[in-house]
């Protein structure tokens, strides 16, 4: 065991330097947590006691002490406050490097449970030693801390210095490291940097111990992203190797991809995509609390497999229990979508040319005219009129022929009958013009059938309610409407399958967010290029789209600042408008010919007219054959 006065000299140096570091870098009023590991000598508790006494004397920070056995109690009783800073005290033991790293990792794990991912907090690691600390050990310690994404860290050790006064004179060295120094060693701790030296609380170089380590030039290091195809936000593309043997899935278009590429260019980083671990319940990732595993893009961000995760991810409380969200850049929400109103069948055109009441009036007027002309032909002297008009059926036949714009076989003879006959001809002429005008316009545009217009009509209809499993939490409230929806819910295999059934078959309604709808409304269109999907009024739930990153990731704040600047500059809205317009142009290629200023009738418009014409000819031929048969039957044998 070392002599007590040696401990006192070391302690005095380390305590003074520690207090000086805390005074410079821990804001007044912000919590300061002191964590010490279990030691096998009396040096560790002695130093911890001296340090706490000195820190208390300053009365600048709320102090909390954490021991391995008491950490769980602190977690339950301590209300986490942001910007907490930490002092970790560990002793270089005789058991070796692995034992030291394990103890430090255990301490950090307990601290992370108090406040996971605290990028604004600073870490000061004090290694108590007997001169057995070298740069390789420091590298191992810093690498162990980097596994928790701890970057603003100083490792402090007391070493002997050359002095002619006393052999026990010591100085304190402060070490750290810098990531992203070259493409070959981006996040590998390879070099340990001596930041400053401290003698009795005074720094030799007075250097900044916690400089800005994330700059705008990160030397082409990869900015790893985890994503999946997501409408106009993330558009998937494929790349084939030069020999054609391998096809690689990548992402080069979409609003979030454009935003991500801009962030990578801002920091001089290389875009790199990974394939998320497959998820089966929630499309963004499945969480299993029993073994603390998370799949999908959320799991990639939580466990640091990716630097950023994005694919229309909503900012919500549950996700932020596990990961940190950046500034939101797109507003979105969930709505019900149904098949748009379909054009009415053109065979209904004839019936719909006039309303039912107009048709009824026309029929009554027809019979009234026929009775009136027959009455005038019969009275006062029926012998003056042609025999055709003295018969009711003959009068009916003549009026019907005029109505169909067909000539009659015999004209009326008397003035009164001729006057009524002329009035009927003029009326039919005007009626024919009106009828043909409406008939032609309805052949061009037959109108639309009735469409479900709101959620109340949707629930009263017999449409199937189908949507992705990930949207089930939207209807978990035990209200009457939500219960009815879930009782009629039918699962479907992804957003495209749900949208395809709704748009093309029309027997279902589905739930989509705004951006997914913007994509599918251009994918499912009719012959005129109009969308087959229509949004019902009344938002189910609104949310903001964001990117997610691992808690404590040192890239978080710089990335967040870049997103905010792009939002303030209006770039996100501009990119979105460009993407939507480009997708429209891809689906509807503009013609180089002069615009058509007239309407062209095609068989799709005229088949109804030709159908009625064929029916008329068929009826005429049938009547003609019946007349021939009737005449043959009346000929005497």
From TrEMBL:
One of its GO terms (cellular component) is plasma membrane. InterPro entries: Insect_Ionotropic_Sensory_Rcpt, Iontro_rcpt_C, LBD_receptor. The chain crosses the membrane at residues 354-377, 389-408, 420-439, 606-629. Keywords: Cell membrane, Glycoprotein, Membrane, Receptor, Transmembrane, Transmembrane helix. It is found in: Cell membrane. This is Uncharacterized protein. It comes from the Eukaryota. Belongs to the glutamate-gated ion channel (TC 1.A.10.1) family. The lineage of its organism: Eukaryota, Metazoa, Ecdysozoa, Arthropoda, Hexapoda. Residues 356-517 form the Ionotropic glutamate receptor C-terminal domain. GO terms for molecular function: ligand-gated monoatomic ion channel activity. Gene3D superfamilies: 1.10.287.70. Signal peptide: none annotated.
């Amino acid at each position: 065991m070392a002599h007590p006065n040696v401990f006192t000299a070391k302690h005095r140096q380390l305590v003074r330097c520690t207090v000086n570091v805390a005074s410079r870098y821990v804001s007044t009023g912000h919590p300061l947590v002191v964590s010490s590991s279990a030691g096998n000598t009396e040096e560790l508790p002695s130093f911890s006691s001296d340090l706490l006494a000195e820190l208390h004397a300053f009365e600048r920070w709320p102090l909390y002490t954490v021991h391995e056995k008491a950490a769980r109690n602190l977690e339950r009783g301590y209300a986490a406050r942001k910007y907490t800073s930490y002092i970790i005290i560990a002793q270089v033991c005789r058991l070796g490097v692995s034992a030291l790293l394990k103890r430090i990792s255990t301490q950090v794990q307990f601290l992370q449970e108090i406040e996971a991912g605290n990028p604004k907090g600073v870490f000061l690691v004090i290694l108590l030693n007997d001169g057995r600390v070298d740069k390789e050990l420091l590298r191992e310690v810093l690498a162990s801390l980097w596994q928790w994404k701890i970057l603003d860290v100083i490792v402090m050790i007391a070493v002997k210095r050359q002095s002619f006064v006393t052999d026990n004179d010591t100085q304190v060295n402060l070490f750290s490291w810098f990531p992203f120094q070259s493409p070959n060693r981006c996040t590998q701790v390879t070099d340990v940097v001596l930041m400053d030296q401290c003698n009795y609380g005074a720094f030799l170089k007075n250097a900044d111990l916690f400089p800005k380590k994330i700059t705008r030039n990160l030397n082409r290091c990869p900015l790893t992203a985890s994503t999946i195809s997501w409408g106009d936000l993330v558009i998937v593309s494929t790349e084939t190797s030069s020999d054609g043997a391998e096809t690689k899935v990548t992402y080069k278009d979409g609003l979030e991809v454009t935003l991500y590429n801009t962030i990578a260019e801002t920091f001089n980083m290389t875009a790199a995509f990974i394939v998320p671990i497959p998820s089966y319940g929630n499309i963004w990732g499945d969480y299993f609390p029993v073994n603390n595993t998370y799949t999908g893009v959320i799991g990639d961000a939580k466990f640091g497999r990716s630097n950023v995760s994005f694919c229309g991810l909503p900012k919500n409380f549950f996700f932020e229990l596990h990961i940190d969200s950046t500034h939101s850049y797109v507003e979105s929400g969930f709505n019900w979508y149904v098949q748009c109103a379909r054009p009415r069948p053109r065979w209904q055109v004839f019936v719909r040319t006039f309303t039912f009441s107009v048709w009824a009036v026309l029929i009554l007027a027809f019979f009234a005219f026929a009775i009136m002309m027959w009455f005038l032909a019969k009275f006062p002297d029926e012998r003056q009129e042609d025999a055709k008009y003295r018969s009711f059926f003959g009068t009916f036949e003549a009026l019907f022929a005029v109505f169909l714009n067909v000539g009659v076989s015999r004209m009326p003879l008397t003035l009164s009958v001729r006057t009524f006959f002329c009035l009927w001809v003029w009326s039919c002429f005007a009626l024919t013009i009106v009828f043909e005008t409406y008939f032609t316009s309805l052949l061009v545009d037959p109108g639309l059938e009735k469409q479900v217009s709101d959620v109340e009509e949707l629930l009263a209809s017999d449409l199937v309610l189908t949507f992705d499993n990930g949207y089930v939490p939207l209807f978990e409230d035990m209200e009457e409407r939500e219960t009815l929806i879930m009782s009629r819910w039918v699962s479907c295999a992804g957003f495209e399958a749900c949208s395809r059934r709704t748009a093309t078959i029309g027997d279902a309604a589905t739930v989509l967010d705004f951006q997914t709808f913007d994509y599918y409304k251009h994918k499912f269109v009719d012959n005129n290029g109009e969308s087959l999907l229509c949004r019902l009024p009344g938002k189910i739930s609104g949310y903001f789209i964001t990117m997610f990153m691992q808690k404590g990731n040192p890239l978080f704040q710089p990335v967040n600042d870049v997103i905010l600047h792009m939002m303030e500059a209006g770039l996100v809205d501009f990119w979105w408008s460009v993407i939507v317009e480009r997708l429209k142009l891809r689906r509807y290629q503009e013609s180089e010919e002069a615009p058509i200023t007239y309407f062209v009738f095609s068989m799709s418009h005229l088949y109804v007219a030709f159908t009625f014409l064929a029916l008329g000819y068929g009826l005429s031929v049938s009547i003609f054959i019946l007349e021939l048969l009737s005449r043959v039957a009346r000929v005497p044998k």
